[in-house]
Amino acid sequence: MGRSIGPAASITCSSTPASTSSRPAFDRLFGVRTVSFHLGRDASTIDLARELSRDEIAAAETEANRVVWENRGVSIPLRERGRRGEAAAAEGNRCARAR
Protein backbone atom coordinates (compact mmCIF):
# COMPACT_ATOMS: atom_id res chain seq x y z
CA MET A 1 0.00 0.00 0.00
CA GLY A 2 1.47 3.36 -0.99
CA ARG A 3 1.39 6.39 1.27
CA SER A 4 2.15 9.99 0.47
CA ILE A 5 2.65 12.50 3.30
CA GLY A 6 2.82 15.98 1.84
CA PRO A 7 2.26 19.59 2.90
CA ALA A 8 -1.50 19.22 2.39
CA ALA A 9 -1.52 16.22 4.78
CA SER A 10 -2.66 13.98 1.96
CA ILE A 11 -2.57 10.22 2.40
CA THR A 12 -2.84 7.99 -0.65
CA CYS A 13 -3.89 4.35 -0.29
CA SER A 14 -4.39 1.70 -2.95
CA SER A 15 -7.84 0.06 -2.86
CA THR A 16 -8.28 0.12 0.92
CA PRO A 17 -11.75 -0.82 2.28
CA ALA A 18 -13.63 2.05 3.89
CA SER A 19 -14.41 2.09 7.59
CA THR A 20 -18.09 1.87 8.52
CA SER A 21 -17.56 3.41 11.94
CA SER A 22 -19.55 6.47 12.90
CA ARG A 23 -16.35 8.55 13.06
CA PRO A 24 -13.22 8.12 10.93
CA ALA A 25 -10.20 6.57 12.68
CA PHE A 26 -8.12 9.78 12.37
CA ASP A 27 -10.84 11.71 14.20
CA ARG A 28 -11.47 9.07 16.88
CA LEU A 29 -7.81 8.49 17.66
CA PHE A 30 -6.26 11.94 17.23
CA GLY A 31 -9.09 14.46 16.84
CA VAL A 32 -7.95 15.19 13.27
CA ARG A 33 -10.78 16.22 10.97
CA THR A 34 -11.10 14.87 7.43
CA VAL A 35 -11.15 17.87 5.08
CA SER A 36 -11.96 15.93 1.89
CA PHE A 37 -11.54 12.54 0.28
CA HIS A 38 -11.55 10.95 -3.16
CA LEU A 39 -12.41 7.31 -3.90
CA GLY A 40 -10.79 6.41 -7.18
CA ARG A 41 -10.62 3.27 -9.26
CA ASP A 42 -6.94 2.60 -8.52
CA ALA A 43 -6.24 4.82 -5.50
CA SER A 44 -8.08 6.78 -2.83
CA THR A 45 -6.94 9.92 -1.01
CA ILE A 46 -7.85 11.47 2.34
CA ASP A 47 -7.01 15.12 3.05
CA LEU A 48 -6.70 15.87 6.76
CA ALA A 49 -6.73 19.09 8.79
CA ARG A 50 -3.09 18.56 9.81
CA GLU A 51 -0.13 16.38 8.92
CA LEU A 52 0.31 13.11 10.81
CA SER A 53 3.38 11.19 11.83
CA ARG A 54 4.05 7.79 10.32
CA ASP A 55 3.16 6.21 13.70
CA GLU A 56 -0.22 8.03 13.75
CA ILE A 57 -0.96 6.86 10.20
CA ALA A 58 -0.07 3.27 11.13
CA ALA A 59 -2.31 3.41 14.23
CA ALA A 60 -5.23 4.79 12.20
CA GLU A 61 -4.72 2.10 9.54
CA THR A 62 -4.73 -0.61 12.22
CA GLU A 63 -7.92 0.82 13.74
CA ALA A 64 -9.68 1.08 10.36
CA ASN A 65 -8.73 -2.52 9.54
CA ARG A 66 -10.03 -3.65 12.94
CA VAL A 67 -13.40 -2.06 12.16
CA VAL A 68 -13.47 -3.72 8.72
CA TRP A 69 -12.73 -7.14 10.22
CA GLU A 70 -15.65 -6.67 12.68
CA ASN A 71 -17.81 -7.11 9.56
CA ARG A 72 -20.35 -4.55 10.76
CA GLY A 73 -23.71 -4.33 9.04
CA VAL A 74 -24.43 -1.35 6.81
CA SER A 75 -27.90 0.13 6.39
CA ILE A 76 -28.68 2.59 3.60
CA PRO A 77 -32.19 4.07 3.46
CA LEU A 78 -33.52 4.27 -0.10
CA ARG A 79 -35.83 6.96 -1.47
CA GLU A 80 -37.68 7.29 -4.71
CA ARG A 81 -36.31 10.01 -6.95
CA GLY A 82 -38.16 13.28 -6.38
CA ARG A 83 -39.77 12.24 -3.08
CA ARG A 84 -38.70 13.73 0.24
CA GLY A 85 -39.41 13.23 3.91
CA GLU A 86 -39.90 10.41 6.37
CA ALA A 87 -42.57 8.60 4.33
CA ALA A 88 -40.24 8.23 1.35
CA ALA A 89 -37.35 7.07 3.56
CA ALA A 90 -39.61 4.56 5.34
CA GLU A 91 -40.83 3.25 1.99
CA GLY A 92 -37.26 2.95 0.80
CA ASN A 93 -36.35 0.93 3.89
CA ARG A 94 -39.17 -1.53 3.13
CA CYS A 95 -37.88 -1.85 -0.45
CA ALA A 96 -34.33 -2.54 0.76
CA ARG A 97 -35.52 -5.28 3.14
CA ALA A 98 -37.56 -6.92 0.39
CA ARG A 99 -34.52 -7.38 -1.90
Protein architecture, described:
With 99 residues, the chain is of the alpha+beta class. It has a domain at 10-69. The protein contains 3 helices and 3 strands; from the N terminus they run βαββαα. It has a 3-stranded antiparallel sheet with strand order 1-3-2, with no helix packed on it. Strand 2 and strand 3 (44-48) form a beta hairpin. The chain starts with 9 loop residues before the first strand and ends with a helix. The relative contact order is 0.17.
Main features:
99 residues, alpha+beta, three-stranded antiparallel sheet, extended
Low-pLDDT sequence parts: 1-21, 93-99
Count, helices: 3
Shape: extended
Termini separation: 35 Å
Q: What structural category characterises the helix and strand content?
A: alpha+beta
Q: Report Rg.
A: 17 Å
Helix fraction, binned, reads 25-40%
* Number of DSSP strand runs: 3
Helix/strand order: EHEEHH
Report the β-strand fraction as a percent range.
15-25%
Largest sheet: 3 strands, antiparallel
Mean pLDDT: 73
With strands numbered from the N-terminus, the spatial order across the biggest sheet is 1-3-2
Fold blueprint:
Elements: E1 10-13, H1 25-30, E2 34-39, E3 44-48, H2 54-69, H3 86-98
Antiparallel strand pairs: 1-3, 2-3
